[in-house]
Amino acid sequence: MLAQDESGALAASLAELKAYLRIETSGEDGVLTGLLRSAAALCEQFVGQWLIVRGARETVAGDGSWQRLAARPVVTIESVEAVDADGTAVALPVDGYAIDIDAAGEGWVRSTRAGDRRRLMVRYSAGMASEMNGLPEALRQGIVRLAAEHFSARGTESAAPPAVVSALWRPWRRMRLR
Questions:
Q1: What sign has the CA pseudo-torsion 173, 22, 159, 39?
Q2: In terms of DSSP H, where are the helices of the chain?
Q3: CATH code for the domain defined by 2-50+130-172
Q4: CA–CA gap between residue 173 and residue 166 (Å, rounded)
Q5: How far is CA 9 from the centre of its chain?
Q6: How confident is the model at residue 6 (pLDDT cuts 50, 70, 90)?
Q7: 113 FRET partner, CA 20 to 30 A, in 3, 119, 155, 157?
């Protein structure tokens, strides 16, 4: 199970979206901010990566096999705890687990305690950039264009992002083969 910290950081700025839409007043700021958040969430789903770095907490099997973390790219793995059947979490000593972050940004963890049936709770951070200006320009531009499209369509938008947005995001798309 993956839980993530709520991030207040936007992946593209409200000023960029307002300039793109040629809006000079602040009357629609709440709606536009919501559309930016929605567009960023859709971007994350499309590219298979978190955009802005934020914390995550995930529970994985502690059976001794390597477990891949759900969010990516993983920046840091902060802690690993063993979770007993009653839900009590106990910090594991350093020799009680192994961690790895591979070149593709995938985070991995496993218990090194043979026969330990407890689950592992892993706290880590994942994301492509610490703030919006660190993101590739094409991702930000796609987010702005999708938010603008949704603002203009006002409820008549299709399920798929416009082709130009897909074209902007596609180079960063990472899919997992299971």
A1: positive
A2: 14-21, 29-47, 137-153, 163-169
A3: 1.10.3230
A4: 10
A5: 12
A6: low
A7: 3
- Which pair of structure tokens corresponds to residue 83? 């979770």
Cα separations in angstroms, 57 against 4, 130, 163? 6, 18, 34
Query: How far is the first Cα of the chain from the last one, in angstroms, to the nearest whole number?
Result: 17
pTM to 2 decimals? 0.85
Answer positive or negative: Cα dihedral of 93, 97, 100, 106: negative
What is the residue type of 75? V
What percent of the chain stands above pLDDT 90?
67
Of 56, 21, 41, residue with least CA distance to 139: 41
Cis peptide before 162 (omega within 30 of 0): no
Where do the structural domains in the chain lie, given as residue ranges? 2-50+130-172, 54-126
Three-class SS state of 124: strand
Q: Structure tokens of 144?
A: 């702005």
